[in-house]
């Protein structure tokens, strides 16, 4: 029996993977996912997005059958049990980062996600970065922001000095740069897509060797290293394919659907 025949679960990144450039899941892809579900495969999505954003882009008939990993693993929902996993950044470290950004007058680069609510110090960050933020933030004071349990700290187009400061915490936090370095995502140290998927799979008695992951950016690397099969999209960032077992077409070529159709036909 080859490794593909051992697969019991499928994990999909969203942007650049399951979603095309119009931020939609094609009809063909939806049908293929339902076919996988009907064959008894466990379906997961693993994304940097918050829950509210995922509900906007994933059809409800698909979402009701998947377990979801949000914020790169900091907040998760198990659709079978209805349970959640919630991991936050230590308040002492979050406060240091917030204080530093405020002292540098870069409040228009900073926001925090906490249990599906976006918080910020100024609405300017939303006006300047709607591509990343989707909804206006809840505006709070600096003291209030520092006290909020943060699943994720986001820094969008911050200065090189601030980036260097954030990176000084790399031994204490999980820090991921995406969107060609435009977006810095900060989570608790042991938070990752892989750790979250592993925790959810453990509940279903599924080994990570029995998981196939699809992705296109560096925040998928931990999944690629942890899963039995990893599939890099044709549009993946340069270099990611070196860590993948195999490749699929691009997200605009319905690469996920085409790959799974071939796999299911064997």
From TrEMBL:
<dbReference type="InterPro" id="IPR006379">
    <property type="entry name" value="HAD-SF_hydro_IIB"/>
</dbReference>
<dbReference type="InterPro" id="IPR000150">
    <property type="entry name" value="Cof"/>
</dbReference>
<dbReference type="Pfam" id="PF08282">
    <property type="entry name" value="Hydrolase_3"/>
</dbReference>
<dbReference type="InterPro" id="IPR023214">
    <property type="entry name" value="HAD_sf"/>
</dbReference>
<dbReference type="InterPro" id="IPR036412">
    <property type="entry name" value="HAD-like_sf"/>
</dbReference>
<keyword id="KW-0378">Hydrolase</keyword>
<dbReference type="GO" id="GO:0016787">
    <property type="term" value="F:hydrolase activity"/>
</dbReference>
<protein>
    <submittedName>
        <fullName>HAD family hydrolase</fullName>
    </submittedName>
</protein>
